[in-house]
Amino acid sequence: MESLNHLALIWGAVFIANILARKTKLTPVLWFLALGAVMVNTGLMPLESDHFISGLATLGIILIMFALGFEENTQNFVASIKKSWGIAFFGAVGPFLAAYLVADYFWQDSNIALMCGLTMTATAVSLTMVSLKGLNLHKSIAAKRIMTSAVLDDIASLALVAIVVPIASGQGTASLPGVALIAGKAIAFFLIVSVLGAWLFPHKVKGWLKHVPLVRSFGITHLLEFGRHSTLTVLLLALLVGLLAHEFGFHPAIGAYMAGLILKEEYFGRKDDKGSYADTRRIVDNVAFTWIGPVFFVELGTKLVFDWDILASVIPHITILLMSVFIAQVFSASLAARFTGGMNWQASLLIGFGMLGRAELAFVVIDIAYVQNSILNTEAFYTLMVTAFFLNILVPITITLWKPYYDKAA
Fold this sequence. Notes:
Layout: H1 2-24, H2 28-41, H3 51-70, H4 74-107, H5 110-119, H6 125-134, H7 141-168, H8 176-200, H9 220-225, H10 230-247, H11 252-262, H12 277-291, H13 293-301, H14 308-313, H15 315-339, H16 345-354, H17 360-372, H18 378-409
Helix pairs in contact: 1-2, 1-13, 2-13, 3-11, 3-12, 3-13, 4-5, 4-7, 4-15, 5-7, 5-17, 6-7, 6-18, 7-8, 7-16, 7-17, 8-11, 10-11, 15-16, 15-18, 16-18, 17-18
């Protein structure tokens, strides 16, 4: 019964967090983390979560990452890559280098520096889009550039996490053969997923697959129509690809995200509500963002046990990292938008401000590096969590302050 008591507290915190998010116009993720920290520091939650809560948190992040991939329109994403690649590349390299150099200066540990760099490359699309929507800018060209660039950065971050974490955690060697082996496993995994999305999933198979039994006659559409269990089908797919990623030595969330990314709306043949793409996505989003997914963030927040001595000692780290990432992110993304994306300066700076947020994926990287693999030390964990919190607060503030200049140039 103790596990159920803890779950009741977590769901109560999720409910309160959503109310606070609506009032403050900040992403609920920040409040999930904050309330988790409050509960563990007041004794309401234990310092170490039991197996039930830990398992539910793991399932939660798998569902969240699948839902994030599932909601991405693959065609629009691919069409926008041409004008967004520069923003994605330079907008990721800037904060990565800033975070890496700051972390390496303070802790003199390349593994910690790498994980700090990777944490700071993942942009929070949901937070930025909520801020843009509140200002009626969510359908602007700048918003599309931000979304595409953020997705590209997230995919790149996931690929790098898949390669770096085994080496940094000691599961692989840093020698050339060791790095090549891990990189080869990452490439093999992404190739398998690509084969699923490009050849096996589509109903109309091409080439030599026409001669393969079952594959030539049945596609993902048949499975999605079977018994109107489309939600069960896609969730099973997310879990299976997540387990496949785990077998390759990567986090299951990486596989779940890729599973969502290769699913397309056209695979859902139904036009009625039950079993349709819209209905399935509504259920997946509800599960991922309303009642199971948030368990992950609240549980991660419970790892932030306040030690005022540690917190006071990392204030310089937080200040320097926050300023460095802010400057690097805004300037690198803005310059890339101006000179590779053909945007004017007003729109370019809006893109720079819009890419400041750090939410779901950043905290997944923190969890993998600190909770699951002990790559980060406690000081680095505190520094990243607080820095991410302030970066998220800066998103709606900077966008709101910059909107009059953007409107004037539009």
